[in-house]
Amino acid sequence: MDTEQLARTFIEYFEERGHRRITGSTLLPPPGDPVLFTTSGMHPLTPYLEGRPHPLGSRLVNRQRCLRTTDLDEVGDATHLTVFEMLGSWSLGDYEGPQSLEWGYGLLTEGLGIDPGLLHATVYAGDEHTERDTASLRVWEHLGVPVEPTAEDNWWSNGPVGPCGPDSEIFLWSGEGPPVSTPTGDDRWVEIWNHVTMSHRRLDDGSLVPLPQRNVDTGLGLERLASLLQGRRSVFECDVFDPWRRLVPALWPLDEPSLRLVCDHLRSAVVILGDGVRPAASGRGYVLRRLLRRALTVLRRDDPSRTLDDLPPELVRHTLDRFRQDADPGEVLRVLTGEESRFVRLLERGRQVLARPRFRGPLTEEDLHYLHDTHGLPRDLITSLREE
Description:
CATH topology of the largest domain: BirA Bifunctional Protein, domain 2
Distance between the termini: 45 Å
CATH architecture of the largest domain: 2-Layer Sandwich
CATH class of the largest domain: Alpha Beta
Radius of gyration: 23 Å
Oligomer: single chain
CATH superfamily of the largest domain: Bira Bifunctional Protein, Domain 2
Order of helices and strands: HEHEEHEHEEEEEHHHHHHHH
């Protein structure tokens, strides 16, 4: 099952259970949201989770592109991407968490044919402020799925303030042989689907107050589950990366970790550009710039002649089509190569500055701040240049 079939199966399953499909938003969150980019499917729905009636009703399903930089240092492992797609379902004051878990189990085992013996769940164990999620625990015990209670890992929040609540996470065994241990004890248990009972709002002072209605918010990583269903070793080997893995190694010979980072960051940059963001010194534009510079640093490490001028237009078009964006591939490529030229000039200036006697020894925090504020050299670039 490829990712498109998986997405259709998910959405149709919930449509058959009374959910209305809503159109996913861009990577840019709605006005007033404090985050730079949409990091989960629930972001555009925050007002409705807090009580506003949704025009399409109380049961919703969608497919949402997301961007997360909190996991940037983990990109390149088997499960993390910078830009990815999330499949989501919601109950806005309609059904409760146990119903969501039963449907989730049904979709995974009957709709997708996953062996129930390869599943494990976690539930919220409670703390001094909130009680144990016994309802979810009973569902998993009734279904015969092993369940592990945890506290910190099973309380979901959308930042320091805002909607939050206990969650139950579903894991799929990715190792060879029969499953062993638990999700907190063996990382071969891969989280694939999170079901949050959105029951509270955290205030500025850290206190919790009940939301006007109890909601259910679920999120399933499309590429992550697709790679597992396809028997691949990582998300970088699922079908959405097929053209990247076919074209990039022949163009730029890279070791596997470098290949993954370059493909992820360039692909993410294309999607960000497709949503109208342009490189800048701050905000969303700086996230884009940072991703590009990380990719270029790795790309040029072994061969400084490597350039984005050689990036196949096919990869840009494939990525824009994949994320249903109507941006001009030629314009995207022009921005990418223009930003590369800016980066090359910065490298040349950085080498000259760092060659000064003042910067030849160990650098202090004061030196790093000066280099950034005066010469525009970020810390990671300084580190890279000093390793040359």
